[in-house]
């Protein structure tokens, strides 16, 4: 690919349709899709490269003495700041707790940094902080440090929140994308796309029959339940990821590339709520690329798939868990899906922002 | 889900496919006209399920793809102006012009907004009286009524800060251009369901008769497309060439008369340049003179922009059904949705973008496949038929 581009350079030197590279940041760089990956590969990784970061999991795993710590950070800039099913504060707790939980860690402590825009109603801040308190209590974590900055009106968008978290990985637990193996089963803990469509309908003032609520939730207790599956073989959970920005399709692509395996999904077995599916059809979006804030994808040993499925379904956040596909040796780095009518198609990484089609 | 699952049923699909195999005696080349149909075909893997020798080629019906580069550059020039709020349907934002796309302009400080309905521009205009609101009115007949309504309302309400940059195109002249071409391979069409929901399908009757090509107005769900394909193949096998309506749950022959009336009041037919194809006479709409005060091309000084497409790009042949994406040496290597070289790679509904997104795991097959098939009828004893 790079060779081809180099060879083509003189040919297209004066091409009026440019070979496209963004010289400045565009919104798509924050979408979690291909452009985000470009930034990471070309700017962040070359500067910060080290073996811990290179794993590119949702959290860093640090071995300090006999302890194994999970460490992660996330910033929250969602607008609107209050939405059906949650708010920016609740999201800031769940997001970081979930990134820790995806390593199998028990989340323990969080930091919170607030960037407030001049003019933000104090009542709104109070409401957000109260929501963070409730979410933290439910997840069993404590805020132990923090920071506040205020920027001029117009220099921020009401409120931005950063949370950083640490958790303790139980002995013997080793969950990472690169452990994914052909034959493994792919499980999804429930309906796709609720969060993204809740935000989108609120943001665009779209009204759909039956309000769509965000699924935002802390998944650490679901993970603990999974890890406690009875009669488990050792290391039976190979990889856990919460499919946030970029959706399930982008997350699965990241895992497939990381582990150099293929994946084959069955469209029919992927749970999507009717209201979400309808809203996506209307807007020309694909639920597989819509963000989730309370769902996880689990890659588990095939002999344990049914037991983990049953265990997940016993948890309130996993009642609609389904086995949606399997890891295969063919087409490494690529995710394919068997469609409802029997065809096959590629599920690619999301490129930039997901845009509504016009007809 | 109601009205979705019914049209995605694998068992019904198998029945239709079996019938197709039963009646098909020789190879046929069909074209689906709409980008939405192309998207559905590749997304659902319908092309992989069709009997051997039955080829679907992809038509010019992706409005984003066929919008000429000059028009996109004009849009970008307007969007860069400081007192303009430039409104567009979402997928136009990613289409590169000669210098960047609307996302880039937005990130450089241009006020670019995605709207779901053209009428949202009226709200934006009322909230921003000191700004000029320009809507990029592109598309086929499908989007014409809503776009016309924006111009109509802007004039009725004496809004001095609303204008449209119009680049509307029409399906029937494009079908004629394809059929009249000496290179044409297309023998039958899956007609454009949504376009006909607005316009009806009377204007397709003379085209079908003149060129002896079946046209089956078809919907967008997998079973719609399979049924439309079966109906077209049946006509071809029986030696008939008429217009039929597969999408009768949505449309009839007359279409939406109030919408047509509104289009007629606001727009008039004009010659249009199609990206990748060239100028087709009387193939588009422009605003009537009465709406000159809302015509962005007249309000903004956007000079004629001369552009050239890269020579390697074969999107013109793809849009006319002569070639398929895999036939292009640049497909998936030099030319990707992130770095499109031509029209059909820029929108999700473009044939190249759809192939790239959903079908690039498949072995290249396309125009060549037809050449490999003996053009004489498949004999009854070949085992190809059920």
Within CATH, the superfamily of the largest domain in chain A carries the name PurM-like C-terminal domain
Oligomer: heterodimer
**Helix count, DSSP H or I runs of 4 or more residues of chain B:** 18
CATH architecture of the largest domain in chain A: Alpha-Beta Complex
> What is the ordering of alpha helices and beta strands of chain A?
HHHEEEEHEHEEEHHEHEHEHEEE
Proper CATH architecture of the largest domain in chain B: 3-Layer(aba) Sandwich
The average pLDDT of chain B is: 88
Give the C-alpha Rg of chain A. 21 Å
Shape of chain B: globular
Shape of chain A: globular
Short description:
The complex is a heterodimer of chains A (359) and B (386). With 359 residues, chain A is of the alpha+beta class.
Name the features.
heterodimer, A: 359 residues, alpha+beta, 60s Ribosomal Protein L30, Chain: A, Phosphoribosyl-aminoimidazole Synthetase, Chain A, domain 2, 2 domains, seven-stranded mixed beta sheet, five-stranded mixed beta sheet, globular, B: 386 residues, alpha/beta, Rossmann fold, 3 domains, six-stranded mixed beta sheet, five-stranded parallel beta sheet, 18% strand, disordered C terminus
Overview of the structural elements:
- Chain A is an alpha+beta fold.
- Chain A has helices spanning 2-8, 34-48, 51-54, 88-101, 122-139, 194-203, 220-227, 247-259, 274-283, 305-313; strands at 60-64, 67-76, 82-83, 86-87, 106-117, 142-151, 159-168, 185-188, 237-241, 262-266, 297-300, 322-328, 335-338, 344-347.
- Chain A has 2 domains: 58-168, PurM-like, N-terminal domain (60s Ribosomal Protein L30, Chain: A, 2-Layer Sandwich); 177-347, PurM-like C-terminal domain (Phosphoribosyl-aminoimidazole Synthetase, Chain A, domain 2).
- In chain A, α4 (88-101) packs parallel to α5.
- Chain A has 10 helices and 14 strands.
- Chain B is of the alpha/beta class.
- Chain B has 3 domains: 5-64 and 171-254, Rossmann fold, CATH 3.40.50; 66-170 and 256-296, HypD, alpha/beta domain 2 (Rossmann fold); 315-359, no CATH class.
- Chain B has helices spanning 10-23, 35-44, 46-49, 63-66, 69-79, 102-107, 120-127, 144-156, 171-180, 193-199, 205-211, 222-238, 257-266, 296-299, 315-319, 343-346, 351-359, 367-372; strands spanning 28-34, 54-61, 84-88, 111-114, 132-139, 162-169, 188-192, 215-218, 243-245, 267-274, 278-287.
- In chain B, the strands form 2 sheets. Chain B has a 6-stranded mixed sheet, sandwiched between helices. A 5-stranded parallel sheet of chain B has the order 2-1-7-8-9.
- Chain B is globular.
- The relative contact order of chain B is 0.17.
- Mean pLDDT of chain B is 88; it is low at 365-386.
- At the A-B interface, α1, α9 and β14 of A face α1, α2, α3, α6 and α12 of B.
